[in-house]
């Protein structure tokens, strides 16, 4: 439905049963970097995030804390989940809650449409249900328990026993869409990425799909099934619909036509919901499937997936209070290949902050600005002749811009930053080789000095534009110091080397101050 100029990207909506950890922030930052990049490429970029507030897990958590589920959700959203966006500097366009009226009403419209079209029927189901995952588990999803759960089968993700449930529910005829899904994966290899995720999904569907239980009658915290208010909608069926209800489905056809389809960025543990159940739901409703589902890896601490229940969860502000939001964003986007698991350590974070941000990029910016102030009274020179070394820098600006743009197109954020960092390294090497401090000593070398300084300024401005989606606060400061015209976020990132600025630079404070305290 989109004309190709829109870029609608989503994070999962997160359960409000607990406060966020850096695994949640990692997903938010990745989606935000992609949205910012596409926005600076002149596209109609729209970033959605939000919270998942229905289901048995939320009901039990709220009850254990002596409040209603809605009171619990309100508290967590306002004190933890929305503040997370500020903590890691997310520029989202919308924040949806599954308790929003706009979601509940239009989710019911979708469900009624499937019911009227014959895609839903009544039946009975018995199976092992993990409340933590809010999912019925297949035998292959269970593992042998250890410790207090030795001798029992437990959920492979949450390491706790599942509950045996037997309910009369409504079912979605998902099994009828297996062939269409396999054709989708075959005809559009990019629909599920990375390749490892795609292979997993294809293997799962080829084993055969069962119909999906989409209602619960044993509790009442959820969206009422529109034709039977003794049932509430299965929490995942409810949650997946946020991607279209927020985008206008059922209430704003123009907005929905402009934005949909979306790119979904999700953790690999919820890949099947997004790459199997969700497109099947849309196929049944006659709605275009998402543009792409990208399943990123887990953040590991001590070799285990980030988890509050296992006491490996780290709050984002534990990092940002010391290093700042820019360093958080840079580290997780640079240090981990997006799509693969990655290990977090305080030592690696601290080392990269010092060597790459403070010494590499930050010191480069400070040196260049300081030399223009010292040798040219802050006025950016208008150079005449450029040497081969100068032209090589100019060529690198264009080359890394193209390489980074190509990488972003594949959601390879880590590769994009690596390409950009080639310019950081080349500029540092260029300044060391050209020795502007020596050129400044001899008036006969004035022209050469000015050519070196203007080359360095131009390269630094290109870096400000290219890195603005990743480190927005530092690049905004640098842009101001360079005398950049307008806001750095308004510059076309796919033509970063064409940036324009004023005649002068202004003093620049350290972008990444030295951190003396030991952290972790």
From TrEMBL:
Q: Where does Zn(2+) bind?
A: 130, 133, 155, 158
* Nucleotide-binding found in the keyword field: yes
Query: What stretch of residues is annotated with the motif 'KMSKS' region?
Result: 305-309
Annotated GO MF terms? methionine-tRNA ligase activity
Q: Which Pfam families match?
A: Anticodon_3, tRNA-synt_1g
Q: What class of enzyme is it?
A: ligase
Keyword set for this entry? Aminoacyl-tRNA synthetase, ATP-binding, Cytoplasm, Ligase, Metal-binding, Nucleotide-binding, Protein biosynthesis, Zinc
Read off the InterPro entries from this record: Anticodon_Met, Met-tRNA_synth, Met-tRNA_synth_2, Methionyl/Leucyl_tRNA_Synth, MetRS_core, Rossmann-like_a/b/a_fold, tRNAsynth_Ia_anticodon-bd
EC number(s) reported in the record: 6.1.1.10
Which reaction(s) are listed as its catalytic activity?
tRNA(Met) + L-methionine + ATP = L-methionyl-tRNA(Met) + AMP + diphosphate
The Methionyl/Leucyl tRNA synthetase domain sits at: 8-368
Cofactor section:
Zn(2+)
Q: Where is this motif: 'HIGH' region?
A: 14-24
Q: Which SUPFAM superfamilies match?
A: Anticodon-binding domain of a subclass of class I aminoacyl-tRNA synthetases, Nucleotidylyl transferase
Annotated Methionyl-tRNA synthetase anticodon-binding domain residues: 380-484
Q: Where does this protein reside within or beyond the cell?
A: Cytoplasm
From which domain of life does this come? Bacteria
Keyword Zinc-finger in the entry? The reply is: no
Query: What does the entry's cofactor note say about binding and number?
Result: Binds 1 zinc ion per subunit.
Oligomeric state and interaction partners are given as:
Monomer.
The family annotation for this protein states: Belongs to the class-I aminoacyl-tRNA synthetase family. MetG type 2A subfamily.
Q: Which NCBIfam families match?
A: metG, PRK12267.1
**Described purpose of this protein according to its UniProt entry:** Is required not only for elongation of protein synthesis but also for the initiation of all mRNA translation through initiator tRNA(fMet) aminoacylation.
PANTHER family xrefs: METHIONINE--TRNA LIGASE, MITOCHONDRIAL, METHIONYL-TRNA SYNTHETASE
User: What is this protein identified as?
Assistant: Methionine--tRNA ligase
Lineage, opening ranks: Bacteria, Bacillati, Actinomycetota, Actinomycetes, Micrococcales
């Amino acid at each position: 439905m989109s004309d190709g100029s829109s870029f609608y990207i989503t994070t999962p909506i997160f359960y409000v049963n607990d406060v966020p950890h850096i695994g949640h922030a990692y997903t938010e930052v990745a989606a935000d970097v992609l949205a910012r990049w596409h926005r600076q490429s002149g596209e109609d970029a729209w970033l959605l995030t939000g919270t998942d507030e229905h289901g048995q897990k939320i009901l039990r958590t709220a009850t254990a804390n002596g409040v209603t589920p809605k009171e619990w959700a309100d508290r967590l959203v306002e004190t933890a989940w929305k503040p997370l966006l500020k903590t890691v500097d997310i520029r989202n366009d919308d924040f949806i809650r599954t308790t929003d009226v706009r979601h509940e009403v239009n989710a019911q419209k979708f469900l009624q449409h499937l019911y009227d079209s014959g895609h839903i029927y009544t039946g009975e189901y018995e199976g092992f249900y993990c409340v933590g995952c809010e999912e019925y588990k297949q035998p292959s999803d269970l593992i042998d328990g250890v410790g207090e759960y030795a001798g029992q089968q437990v959920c492979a993700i949450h390491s706790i026993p599942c509950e045996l449930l037997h309910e009369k529910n409504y079912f979605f005829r998902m099994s009828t869409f297996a062939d269409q899904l396999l054709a989708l994966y075959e005809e559009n290899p990019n629909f599920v990425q990375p390749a490892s995720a795609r292979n997993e999904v294809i293997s799962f569907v080829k084993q055969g799909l069962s119909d999906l239980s989409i209602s619960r009658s044993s509790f009442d915290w959820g969206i009422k099934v529109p034709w039977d208010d003794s049932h509430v909608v299965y929490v995942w069926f409810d949650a997946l619909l946020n991607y279209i209800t927020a985008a206008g489905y059922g209430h704003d056809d123009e907005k929905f036509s402009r934005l949909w389809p979306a790119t979904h960025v999700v953790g690999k543990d919820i890949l099947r919901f997004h790459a199997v159940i969700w497109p099947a739901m849309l196929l049944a409703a006659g709605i275009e499937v998402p543009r792409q589902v990208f399943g990123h890896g887990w953040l590991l601490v001590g070799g285990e997936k980030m988890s509050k229940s296992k006491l490996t969860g780290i709050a984002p502000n534990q990092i940002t209070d010391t290093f700042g939001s820019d360093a958080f964003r840079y580290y997780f986007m640079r240090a981990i290949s997006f799509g693969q698991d990655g290990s977090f350590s305080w030592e690696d974070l601290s080392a990269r902050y010092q060597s790459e941000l403070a010494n590499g990029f930050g010191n480069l910016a400070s040196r260049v600005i300081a030399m223009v102030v010292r040798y040219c009274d802050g006025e950016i020179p208008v150079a005449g002749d450029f040497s081969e070394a100068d032209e090589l820098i100019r060529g690198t600006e264009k080359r890394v811009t193209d390489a980074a743009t190509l990488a972003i197109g594949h959601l390879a954020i880590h590769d994009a930053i690596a390409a950009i960092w080639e310019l950081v390294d080349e500029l540092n090497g260029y300044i060391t080789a050209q020795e502007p401090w020596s050129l400044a000593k001899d008036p006969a070398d004035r022209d050469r000095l000015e050519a070196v300084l203007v080359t360095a300024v131009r390269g630094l401005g290109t870096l400000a534009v290219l890195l603005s989606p990743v480190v927005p606060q530092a690049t905004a400061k640098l842009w101001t110091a360079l005398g950049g015209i307008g806001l750095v976020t308004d510059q076309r990132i796919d033509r970063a080397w064409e940036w324009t600025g004023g005649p002068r630079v202004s003093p620049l404070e350290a972008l990444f101050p030295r951190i003396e305290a030991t952290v972790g």
